[in-house]
Amino acid sequence: MNIGILALQGAFAAHEQAFSDLGVSVTRVKTPADLAGVDALVLPGGESTTMSMLLDSSGLRTPLEIRLHDGFPVFGTCAGLIMLSSDIKDGRRDQRPLGALSVTVRRNGYGRQIDSFETPIIVDDGAQQIEMNGVFIRAPRIEEVGSNVVVLSMANNDPVLVRQGNVLAATFHPELGGNGYVHQLFLEIVEEIESPRHSKMVRN
Catalytic annotation on 183? Predict the structure, then answer.
């Protein structure tokens, strides 16, 4: 398994370390050719408007949209969640989300950098409950979720970790929480999605 991490801008190094600690191969994705060679993609935290513009200038937006439509597994954190959302309440007029996650999100929903905080959260994936430290750095707030979105964790009465099919997204930074559980959960999602495809290829 080869996990790609969008490396155009933002905090991708900590994600690399989290996956490396789990023994997983990681590739920095900067071009469409890089994207074609990975089994899944992480959209890290950073500045969502800048990252959105760089998706266009790098030529990555269209191939990523195509792969997302085909069920490509993607994990977005903080700004990555904003980019995956279907609606950004306070986005720039030229900011185009990918629309892969049926949530309405507000950027900097908890305030500015000075309002960043940490709080214990419980992740419930349906099989077990894991407590971890939630690190919220100028975090977005999910204000609405679609009926096909599963909420895996809440904090301050807000959804903070959600899943919609092939998409996993967090408003916090699990790569900074000292617990690799959310990254392991994403790997399980990748395996879950890839297994039926492999079986289909074998049958054909």
Answer: no
List per-residue pLDDT tens for the chain, 204 residues long. 899 999 998 888 999 999 999 999 999 999 999 999 999 999 999 888 888 899 999 999 999 999 999 999 999 999 999 999 999 987 666 678 999 999 999 988 887 776 688 999 999 988 889 999 999 998 999 999 999 999 999 998 999 999 999 999 999 999 997 789 999 999 999 999 876 554 443 344
Catalytic residue selected from 15, 173, 194, 198? 173
- Domain CATH code at residue 159: 3.40.50.880
Q: Is 78 a catalytic residue?
A: yes
CA geometry: angle at 65 spanning 63 and 66, to 5°?
65
Provide DSSP, 113-139: GGG-EEEEEEEE-SS-EEEEEEEESS-
* Residue 56: domain span: 2-203
| Residue from 15, 16, 175, 183 carrying the catalytic annotation | 175
- Taking the C-alpha atoms of residue 138 and residue 108, their distance in angstroms, rounded to an integer, is 5
Place of tokens 């904003």: 82
Model confidence, pTM: 0.91
Q: How many domains does the chain have?
A: 1
